[in-house]
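F.,

This is the one I mentioned.
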């Protein structure tokens, strides 16, 4: 798939805010237009603030595509899923929402935010064409959203440390005792998605699967990006349960790193949200509509090295959505079994 670095030039046309950006926007929220008038009302607003957990370059490519189509500037705040949920919640509770729209890995946060009145269920948001042509299995009415892209989880490996004939193809390939102490892992506690992904793979791989991985003396990193960087630097031979987009930057810089997604896997599923009290509600709705359209979804997926719900033939053959229900109750158990508690 197209790597995110292809879109580096997109950043020049999109305002990328740092984590500390204020984003107060100024002025009171505008009225929500009727669906038939949404595009003209969004263009009148002229700007939209997007909080995104998708990698910065990929979000920039998506934002540029939206701007090119509608002439609306996108201000992006890039955060991890946990940071995004924490910041958006704090701002909403303070009555000072800075974001108009979200793109966030599916962790159950949209359900919580809708319950608290911070997000609008997409079915009630007045989108002109929801769910449109999206396959019903990717529409999540209980979570008030739908899936924009899917990022299959897999394994990064250092090609200098792992001979080509030993490159992993399955999760079990990493259970060889010779790889003990050489496997990096993003902290599963950093996201419910990670816990849900581990539960899916463990259920299909046998009752002692997590314990066997735990016996490999895993090296824990705060998130997928530093775990992949450790592999690129030779600090670890592998990174397990990461994403293909995590290796894009070091690989472009010449690092000896590759990524494989096993046929049996789960992954991060990115969903959009519309802020209930954003300052640019029409532009937010138009952006979310675009994220769920074929054009917007494919643009974001290609930039992120992910899969669009409109192109599911690219998914691994035994892909299963993360077990988010189990993640809510089994985090401590997963961490203990992986030797990370």
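My design for it:
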């Amino acid at each position: 798939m197209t790597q995110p670095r292809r879109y580096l030039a997109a950043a020049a046309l999109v305002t990328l805010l740092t984590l500390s950006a204020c984003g107060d926007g100024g002025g009171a929220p505008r009225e929500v237009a009727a669906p038939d008038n949404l595009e003209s009302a969004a263009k009148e607003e002229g700007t939209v603030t997007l909080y995104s957990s998708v990698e910065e370059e990929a979000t920039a490519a998506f934002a540029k595509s939206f701007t090119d189509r509608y002439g609306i500037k996108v201000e992006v705040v890039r955060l991890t899923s946990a940071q995004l949920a924490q910041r958006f919640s704090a701002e909403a509770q303070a009555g000072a929402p800075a974001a108009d729209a979200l793109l966030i890995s599916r962790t159950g946060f949209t359900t919580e935010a809708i319950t608290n009145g911070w997000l609008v269920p997409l079915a009630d948001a007045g989108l002109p064409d929801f769910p449109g042509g999206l396959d019903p299995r990717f529409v999540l009415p209980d979570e008030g959203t739908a899936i924009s892209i899917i990022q299959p989880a897999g394994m990064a490996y250092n090609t200098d440390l792992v001979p080509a004939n030993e490159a992993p193809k399955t999760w079990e390939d990493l259970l060889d005792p010779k790889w003990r102490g050489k496997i990096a892992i993003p902290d599963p506690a950093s996201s419910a998605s990670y816990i849900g992904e581990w539960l899916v793979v463990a259920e299909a791989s046998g009752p002692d699967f997590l314990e066997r991985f735990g016996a490999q003396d895993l090296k824990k990193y705060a998130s997928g990006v530093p775990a992949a960087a450790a592999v690129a630097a030779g600090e670890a031979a592998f990174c397990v349960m990461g994403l293909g987009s995590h290796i894009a930057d070091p690989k472009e810089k010449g690092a000896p790193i590759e990524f494989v997604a096993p046929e049996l896997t789960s992954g991060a599923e990115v969903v959009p949200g519309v802020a209930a009290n954003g300052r640019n509600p029409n532009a937010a709705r138009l952006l979310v509509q675009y994220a769920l359209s074929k054009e917007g979804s494919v643009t974001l997926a290609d930039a992120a090295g992910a899969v669009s719900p409109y192109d599911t033939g690219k998914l691994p053959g035994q892909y299963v959505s993360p077990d988010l229900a189990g993640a809510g109750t089994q985090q401590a158990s997963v961490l203990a079994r992986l030797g990370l508690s």
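The chain has a mean pLDDT of 91.

Talk soon.
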